[in-house]
Amino acid sequence: MDTMTITLASDGRGWIDGQELSGHGTVDEARTAALRTVAARAQERGRSVRVAATDPDGRTWRLVVHPNGRAEEEETVREAEDPDAVAVPAHLRPRTDAVGAAVAGGHELDGARLARELESDMERDYGTGHPYVWRARELTAHATMAIGMPGAAAELYMEAARGWHTLNSPAAYREAAQRAYACWCRVEETADLVWGGELLVDLLRLRGEEYHGALRDVLSRIDEAQALV
Q1: Which of 219, 221, 194, 187 is nearest to 205 (CA)?
Q2: Which is nearest to 166 in space by CA: 138, 141, 199, 203?
Q3: Which of 72, 98, 165, 181 sits at 20 to 30 Å (Cα–Cα) from 18?
Q4: HSE of 220 in the Cβ direction (CA atoms, 13 Å)?
Q5: How buried is 185 (Cβ within 10 angstroms: 0-12 exposed, 13-18 middle, 19+ buried)?
Q6: What is the rounded distance in angstroms from the CA atom of residue 55 to the CA atom of residue 30?
Q7: Whole-number Å distance between alpha carbons of 183 and 185
Q8: Could you read off the pLDDT of 142-153 as tens digits, one per residue?
Q9: What is the DSSP string of 132-160?
């Protein structure tokens, strides 16, 4: 998708990709004219156009303008194209990269702290249950596993899987459930293994027969652990 730039000045002047618009007395008039021009170009090209615009106060805003003239915030379009938040948005990438770097560099506790802070901010900015929250929860689980706490990591992944189930995102649910299972298999304490296994059973039952084989395996492992007590 092409990207065009709009720059607006406080005296009502405006530029599109460096070319000045003329005949507009106010910022609002210049903004309207600029968007109208972008819409015309989108119609000419037969495809939507991204817009990166800068207001006189330096604030940047991003839109997607469609050939029919409709304009949407870029984030709204991105979410529609990627409902499971598989791709990390550009504005969050520095923070997710910081978590990964901390864990890879042997600073797992710092990584877990950064991941929890990100998760908290996502809940505040986007609301509990948003895909960004569940991806941040998975990142926290990853850092928690790196610390050496597989039981806690498994529970975090299970929380994310339940969230994906609520959002009716089977692929994201399956990925989170598989990671929860992998972490749970690393648990050594029998009581924790049984407790986590029972949580995992409840999780897998959310998808009915789809995970019958995995459910049977978890139940078998629980029985084996209990027999050793």
Answers
A1: 219
A2: 203
A3: 72
A4: 6
A5: middle
A6: 11
A7: 5
A8: 999 999 999 999
A9: HHHHHHHHHHHHHHHHT-HHHHHHHHHHH
